[in-house]
Structures are given as structure tokens and as C-alpha cells.
Amino acid sequence: MVHVLLPDPLRSRFVFTYGEPSIVTAWTAAILHDSGSHLASSVAWYAIVMASTYALATAWRYRRPFWIAVVGCLVLTPPVTKLVDYWVLSVQWNLVADATTARGFSSVVSAFGGLLYVSLARTATAWYGYDAGVVTTGTIVLGALSALAVTSAVLSPSVAIIICGMIAVAIGSVIVSNRTQISEWRAWVVSERDNLLLIGGGSAVVVGLLSQLFQVELDTSGRFVSVIAHGTGFATGMVVMVLVLLLESVSR
């Protein structure tokens, strides 16, 4: 509604301008988009990430931490990401002009991605133990790096080949060393398929999101992806979710 109905002169007053930074515009800029494709991309990724996170929260019956973390991300992410973005791009590197503006919901979507990442670690650990949590989070990181090597100039394709080779060798060695238990694994996977699909699907969502958040080339509209804001948003979401889970564990 803001994108379609708000007049351009009024909308321009709510964008974040590097020459005139303010807490108010740091928040309002998050609900502004410069094109229909920009808006559609933010909304699509928001729906995918939040659906996956809510499914996990419902599965392990922790809806309250989920909603607290969502509110925390909505409140904290816009000013935190804009502050870091302004400090790095304007104060430290002097890469942006005073008239340069920033807008978009992608930093908040990044925060929800961090929230999902921590939720996956928490879920895998709670259901299958500490080792499973480590494997889940590590696999997501390696998968995201491999995807970035293909979709972005962040890493070269040769790095993706090396990473995928390492993953294949690790998986192969585990299978060979435990080949006598494969039939038991098959039965366990079948019995746990619903939970494994939740964790696997959520992991795939985080990998896909990270592969889009850290593009360094121009997008189709000629706009650079704000890598610093996205990274800050993802880290903010992780911190918020960890703090919420810690507070929940202390209060029980």
C-alpha cells in the first residue's frame, strides 16, 4: 500500500539519506522500495523465510520465543543496519555522497534469515543432540559458500569445487565407516522424515537466502546489493534469537 498509494514527494521524505541520517528515517526506509521488482523480491523472501521459521517454532512448540524474536528483529534491525552501513560507507570509507539514499526491507529479511539459522541449530540440537546441531549449521555455511561461488564473484568456482569435494569425502567416509548400519539409518530416516524435511527445507532456505544476500555484482536494475547491511541484519537476527532463547531458558 505504501509503495502504490503514497505520493512520490511524501515517500521521498521517509528514505534514509546519508547526508541527513536519522533514527526515524532508518525505520521508515525499511518499508519503502524503489521498484515493483524490489518490493516483490523482499516480500517473496520474507514469506519463504518466515514460513520456514514458523514451521520450526510450531514443531518444537516454542511459538513465544519466535514471536518475541520477530518483534525484536523488527524493532532493532532497521536502526542497527543503517547505523553500521552509515558508519562504514560514509564515515570510514567515504564511498557515498550526501545525497545517496537507502531503502528496502531486505535488511530485516536478512535478520529473519539469521533467526531461522539459529532456530535450525536449536531444533537439530534439541531433537538429535549437539553433534547434529553442529553438522546442520556447518552444512548450511558450506552450502552457502558453494552457492555464492556459482552465483556471485565473492568466491571463484574452483572454491566451490573444493568445498563440494570436501563435503563429498566427509560424507563418503562416514558412510563407509558405518556401512553395516545403513539399513538402520534407512529405517530411522523413514521414521523421522517429517522432522528431517523441516530441518532440510529450512537449511535450503537459508542457503538460498545467503546466496542472494551477498551478491557483489550489479543486479538487473543496475543497483548494488547492500552487502554490509545484509550481513549486519543477518548477524542481528542471530543475536536476537540467541538472547531470546537464553532468556527463555533462564525464566523456566
Describe the structure.
By secondary structure, this protein is mainly α. Helices cover 76% and strands 2% of the residues. It is built from 11 helices and 2 strands, in the order H-H-E-H-H-H-E-H-H-H-H-H-H. Helix 6 runs antiparallel to helix 10 (193-213), helix 6 crosses helix 11 and helix 7 runs parallel beside helix 10 (193-213). The radius of gyration is 20 Å and the shape is globular.
Quick take:
It contains eleven helices and two strands. With 252 residues, it is mainly α.
Distance between the ends: 41 Å
Helix % is over 70%
By helix and strand content, what is the structural category? mainly alpha
Order of helices and strands: HHEHHHEHHHHHH
Keywords:
252 residues, 2% strand, 11 helices, single chain, mainly alpha
Topology:
Blueprint: H1 2-5, H2 8-12, E1 16-17, H3 23-28, H4 36-59, H5 63-92, E2 101-102, H6 106-128, H7 130-151, H8 157-177, H9 182-191, H10 193-213, H11 227-251
Antiparallel strand pairs: 1-2
